[in-house]
Amino acid sequence: MDHSKILGTVLAGGKSQRFGEDKSQVQLGSKLLIDYVLAEIIDVFNEIVIVSNNPIKFNQSEKVSLIKDFKNNLGPLGGVLSAMKWIKENNKDYQWVSTFPTDTPFFKKQILEDFLKKVKSEDSKLFFIKSNNTRHNIFGLWSIDLIDKLEEDLENGDRKVENWANNVGVKIINMNFEKNDPFFNINTKEDLEKAKNIFHD
Predict the structure, then answer these.
(1) Looking at CB atoms within 10 Å, which of 1, 55, 112, 130 has the fewest?
(2) What is the CATH number for 131?
């Protein structure tokens, strides 16, 4: 998989309802939550877009652009489509969109590298990571060829990533981790406290 053909995309448009505030802007240790994932992917891709409808803070880089959802309230699938539309509108030659959430501070660059090495582009137009029997629908690699199908289905009311991916035909890349789960995500204030404890272990 040629990294230069992939647009890194951080989906920061979630409402964070269970958390009570924008998770991406929460401080964990020395960084904002969003900056953990940015730090791990910044050297993998030529460019990264952050999809958010809010004027959020993040570690600035000439590689990183902040864009808005093309349409509100479409969930993560809307964020993916927004990134695809950005590619088209800016005449970029990216063929794939690699997506990441903002709330997984233990995710590491090596996992991404291993995932991309295992991807065979001829096998599917969509790939997700599965680790320790849990499928991670936001850690995905989406072909730009899916843009028309995705837009049509969103207009018809499809919102759930899992259902849409299953219907399209997603290829799962399995990975296993014996120690702390690098996909641990922060949904609640309790999760944030757990993350602080893991950092201190």
Answers:
(1) 55
(2) 3.90.550.10
Residue range 3-56, pLDDT digits in tens: 999 999 999 976 666 687 888 999 998 899 999 999 999 999 999 999 999 889
**Cα 61 from chain centroid (whole Å):** 18
CA angle 15, 61, 81 (to 5 degrees): 45
Distance in angstroms (rounded) separating the CA atoms of residues 165 and 135: 12
- Supply the range of the domain harboring residue 184: 3-200
Beta strands across the sheet bearing 134-143:
64-67, 48-51, 6-11, 96-100, 134-143, 126-131, 171-175
